Amino acid sequence: MRGLIPGHMSQTMKIASWNVNSIKARLDHVKAWLDSQKPDILLLQELKGLDFPYDVFDAMGYRCAAVTQKAYNGVAILSRHEIGLIHEKLPGMDHDEQARYIEADINNVRVIGIYAPNGNPVDSEKFPYKLTWLEHLKNRLAALRADRVPVVIGGDFNIIPDDHDCHDPQVWAGDALFRPESRRLYRAMLNLGYSDAFRVRTQNGGHYTFWDYQGGAWPANKGIRIDHFLLSPCIADRLQSCTIDKEPRGLEKASDHTPIIVTIAAPAKEG
DNA sequence: ATGGCTTTATGCTAAAGA
After folding, report:
1. Of all nucleotides in the shown strands, which has a C1' nearest the CA of A48?
2. Is A49's CB less than 7 Å from nucleic acid strand B?
3. How crowded is residue A137: how many other Cβ atoms within 10 Å of its Cβ?
4. Strand B reaches within 7 A of the A156 CB
């Protein structure tokens, strides 16, 4: 056999996602986490401001693409590989002013980072906005499937997929994150052929990515699983692991979310 | 629970989050 293709192409890709609840407030946590985990790609959500510290991450060897707005929302991609930006708005919602979507080609994989709308309270305009946004996301994922694009989509979906993905379904009944309409759209995305990477590797419940600041939710482990990675079939075949790193949630001045990490094996050699 | 924290914005309070 000829020599391996040089560089990262021949190696596992480690991709993480983290809702940091303000990149400004969490910059030291993110830097320390990058130093210890050394992901190839990190998707960030809830940047919560116009400014993005491109120079800080550049000095650490990460290229950056960020979609920001004043005070709210905001998503970014950090990558050790070149980032080929494809979209900064969710297709079909091009006039939406909220910074919730970023799509790029990285290392021959289509990488999408999302911060889906919360949707509460459900009797406000925020809930139909959430469902409309998710409907457009489903349409985008359907189009990428039709084109057989290898996709890794990660981020804060703001959806609790199943009863055992929260500490107490009765507490969350009626919440926008748990409403049947939201969960139905999540299932519809899976039914396009995408895999919930964490669920593929871990079938039992009680694994969470978010714990509320209030009410002692973290020490009581009253959490919910709302940050996800979905993988298109060819990528799912290469899935090596999907884990939740709870450690950052226990730090002082922590985000209320903690990172989720997937590792994807190199594509099979041809010939 | 009628949100008990946390963050942003230019602030002495509101809005949003999940």
Report:
1. B8
2. yes
3. 24
4. yes
pLDDT (0 to 100) of residue A182: 98
The CA angle A120-A115-A146, to the nearest 5 degrees, is: 115
Domains of chain A: 13-265 (3.60.10.10)
CA atoms within 13 A of residue A49's CA, in its CB half-sphere: 11
- pLDDT at res. A268: 84
Chain segment A175-209, per-residue pLDDT in tens:
999 999 999 999 999 999 999 999 999 999 999 99
Is the CB of A22 within 7 Å of strand B?
yes
For residues A247 and A163, what is the distance between their CA atoms, to the nearest angstrom? 24
Distance from C-alpha of A111 to C-alpha of A100, rounded to nearest angstrom: 14
In strand B, which positions have an atom below 7 A from any protein CB? 3-9, 16-18
What's the confidence (pLDDT) of residue A269? 77
